[in-house]
Amino acid sequence: GMNRKQRRADAKAGIRADPAGEALNAALHHHQSGRLEQAATLYSKILEADPRHADANHLLGVIAFQLGRNEVAADLIGMAIAANRSNPAFHSNLGNALNGMGRQDDALAAYDTALRLRPDYADAHYNRGNVLRDMGRLGDALAACDKALRLRPDYADAYYSRGNVLRDMGRLDDALTAYDGALRLRPDYAEAYNNRGNALLGMGRLDDALAAYDGALRLRPDYADAHYNRGNVLQDMARLDDALAAYDTALQLRPDLAETHNNRGNTLREMGHLDDALAAYDTALSLRPDYADAHNNRGNALLGMGRLDDALAAYDGALRLRPDFADAHYNR
Question: What pLDDT sits at residue 3?
């Protein structure tokens, strides 16, 4: 062993024999650098020696959440909380896992616990805001985003969430300002460009919307939603060939998006390609049988082909799903 003098010198330098602590630091370094597998291996090693190790359970749970394994995450973070109930991060991350499982009320309760333990916890306010938005509680969601931003003025994600809430409220100018705040802090924020485009599209500013989607795609060329949205703007601009190309790219990246097939059908119908349009609507409906718009559009294509009985059946299908669908009544 070391002599006493050496031990005292080491203690002064802050060095102590703490194998779990050293493993935890190494694991954290891997985790923060995105090397999840290496981090998970080290967290698991710590837990072999000490199954109740709160930090290792919590962080292994965070990795499970990052990999989309919400149930596993909730179990592991639950073990961390059983060992230490007073760490606000445990409760906030439990909330994220519960939200991922669709348990929104339980997620809110977890965020509230985190905030009781630490009222100035910006991340918990932000996470809480996202759940409230999903629940349609837009006023509460906006207040949560604002709290997060008061506590941390450089919180780009909170600006982005604030923009999404304002867009849901129909406050498009304010949403635009929020997205710009996110992009000022993080110029490579592809989602903020994309949703900025959606706000501009809602305002009828088509050229600006197109530029915003292009900004998103410069940063992330494989961003299916941005290709789809770009197709919608080009369609509104009557640039039908370009719109079709944008939808095709979106579908190469995400073949299972019913909306893309539906809107692609609309473009083909406007181009006079009725057979191809019909096939696109059929694909949309195979992915989402209760898609009233696609039934209505399918009726329009059949009407254009002179297949009146089939068209009538399609409009009836739309109205069964949405009895107050004015377009379908009119077309019928």
Answer: 58
Distance of alpha carbon 172 from alpha carbon 166, whole angstroms? 7
For residue 161, the model assigns a pLDDT of: 98
Of the candidates 223, 162, 153, the one whose C-alpha atom is nearest the C-alpha of residue 190 is: 223
Q: In Å, what is the CA distance from 230 to each residue of 22, 165, 222, 240?
A: 49, 22, 13, 12
The helix/strand/coil state of 159 is: helix
Residue type, 36: L
Closest listed residue to residue 298, CA positions, set 329, 269, 259: 269
**3-class secondary-structure state, position 93:** helix
Q: Which amino acid is at 95?
A: G
* pLDDT number for residue 15: 47
- Predicted TM-score (pTM) of this structure: 0.83
Identify residue 82 by its one-letter amino acid code.
A
Residue 76 and residue 96 in contact, taking contact as beta carbons nearer than 8 Å: no
* Residue-wise DSSP of 241-283: HHHHHHHHHHHHH-TT-HHHHHHHHHHHHHTT-HHHHHHHHHH
Is residue 247 within 8 A of residue 264, CB to CB? The reply is yes
Residue among 166, 164, 170, 122 nearest 147 (CA): 122
Instruction: Tell me which residue of 122, 139, 133 sits closest to 161, measured CA to CA.
Output: 133
Q: With contact defined as beta carbons under 8 Å apart, do 277 and 251 qualify? A: no
C-alpha distances (whole Å) from 331 to each of 26, 96, 98, 264, 292 are 66, 45, 44, 20, 13
The one-letter amino acid code at 122 reads A
Question: Chain-wide mean pLDDT for the chain?
Answer: 92
Q: Which residues make Cβ contacts (< 8 Å) with residue 101, sequence separation at least 6? A: 70, 71, 74
Interatomic CA distance for residues 49 and 42, integer angstroms = 11
CA distance 105 to 286: 33
Low-confidence ranges of the chain (pLDDT < 50): 1, 11, 14-17
Among the listed residues 91, 121, 122, the one whose alpha carbon sits nearest the alpha carbon of residue 107: 91
Q: Report the alpha-carbon distance of residue 148 to residue 167 in Å, rounded.
A: 18
